[in-house]
């Protein structure tokens, strides 16, 4: 009988993580040897050598490139998978991680059940290249394109890839109206709420409602992250 795959989980405060840990701990082919917070990863004995490390990729607590370095120092032979929200995808980080041997990157929006994560662990332990989501692929391609031609605006999601975007918590598809997109474009250009209201001939209250709707749709809390997502959607300053 094949020995179970030993797994270290480096979790974040994202609400789904406890369910991930519990489901993986109950899986017959996986042995969770450690489940720790990213902030404690460099404490002595926190990370035990394991076949696979599943780490939170959210940049809020610990940037994935820095986290990768810490993990490699403590468990150099582990296969490494990052899992995080789509809003935190960074092209530059993906390039660096790929160049340092990371072959697994999942986004919450792709995880419709624990079986997706289990299959990722099995695939990467077998030495396979982990196929990521359309959004991860598009972000990686855009970063490669920028590296080759720094002045290019970058590749954006195709209409089909946009349909793959869902709210990170509810799983609903994202649908942006023409006015949503116009308000988002103004935000990227740095316009204030009053300016947007004047240019779109709507009230400031309506502008604020659109911004609140955009944040809810994308599952983010700041206009900075809305700007990041606007680029991915191809909503860039004219």
Give the arrangement of secondary structure elements:
Layout: E1 5-11, H1 17-25, E2 30-37, E3 52-56, H2 64-74, E4 79-84, H3 91-99, E5 104-107, H4 114-125, H5 134-148, H6 159-163, H7 178-188, H8 193-200, H9 204-218, H10 223-233
Parallel strand pairs: 1-2, 1-3, 3-4, 4-5
Question: How is this structure best described in words?
Answer:
By secondary structure, the chain is α/β, with parallel strands linked by helices. The chain folds into two domains: 5-144, Response regulator (Rossmann fold), CATH 3.40.50.2300; 175-233, Arc Repressor Mutant, subunit A (Orthogonal Bundle), CATH 1.10.10.10. It has ten helices and five strands; from the N terminus they run E-H-E-E-H-E-H-E-H-H-H-H-H-H-H. The chain has a five-stranded parallel beta sheet with strand order 2-1-3-4-5, sandwiched between helices. Helix 2 (64-74) links the parallel strand 3 and strand 4 (79-84). Helix 8 packs across helix 9 (204-218).
In short:
This protein is α/β, with parallel strands linked by helices and 238 residues long.
The CATH class of the largest domain = Alpha Beta
Number of helices: 10
CATH fold topology of the largest domain: Rossmann fold
- DSSP helix fraction: 40-55%
* Quaternary: single chain
The string of secondary-structure elements, in order, is EHEEHEHEHHHHHHH
Question: In one word, what is the shape?
Answer: elongated
Count of spatially separate domains: 2
With strands numbered from the N-terminus, the spatial order across the biggest sheet is 2-1-3-4-5
Strand content: 5-15%
Task: Give the rounded overall mean pLDDT.
Answer: 79
User: How many beta-strand elements?
Assistant: 5
Distance between the termini: 61 Å
Task: Give the low-pLDDT segments.
Answer: 150-154
Tell me the Rg in angstroms: 19 Å
Helix- and strand-based class?
Answer: alpha/beta
Characterize the largest beta sheet: strand count, sense, and whether it forms a barrel.
5 strands, parallel
Assigned CATH superfamily of the largest domain? Response regulator
CATH architecture classification of the largest domain = 3-Layer(aba) Sandwich
């Amino acid at each position: 009988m094949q020995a179970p795959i030993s797994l270290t989980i480096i979790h974040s405060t994202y609400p789904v993580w406890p369910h991930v840990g519990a489901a993986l701990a109950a899986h017959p082919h996986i042995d969770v040897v450690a489940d720790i917070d990213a902030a404690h990863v460099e404490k002595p004995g926190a990370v035990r050598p394991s076949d696979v490390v599943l780490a939170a990729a959210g940049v809020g607590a610990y940037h994935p490139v820095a986290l990768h370095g810490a993990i490699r120092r403590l468990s150099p032979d582990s296969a490494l998978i990052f899992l995080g929200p789509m809003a935190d995808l960074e092209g530059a980080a993906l390039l660096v991680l790929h160049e340092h041997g990371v072959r697994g990157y999942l986004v919450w929006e792709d995880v419709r059940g624990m079986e997706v994560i289990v299959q990722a662990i099995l695939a990467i332990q077998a030495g396979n290249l982990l196929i990521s989501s359309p959004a991860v692929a598009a972000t990686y391609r855009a970063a490669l394109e920028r590296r080759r031609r720094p002045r290019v605006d970058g590749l954006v999601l195709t209409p089909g890839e946009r349909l793959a975007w869902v709210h990170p918590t509810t799983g609903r598809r994202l649908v942006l109206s023409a006015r949503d997109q116009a308000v988002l474009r103004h935000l990227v250009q740095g316009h204030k709420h009053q300016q947007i209201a004047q240019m779109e001939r709507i009230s400031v209250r309506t502008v604020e409602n659109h911004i609140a709707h955009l944040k809810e749709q994308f599952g983010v809390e700041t206009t900075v992250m809305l700007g990041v997502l606007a680029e991915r959607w191809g909503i860039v300053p004219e």
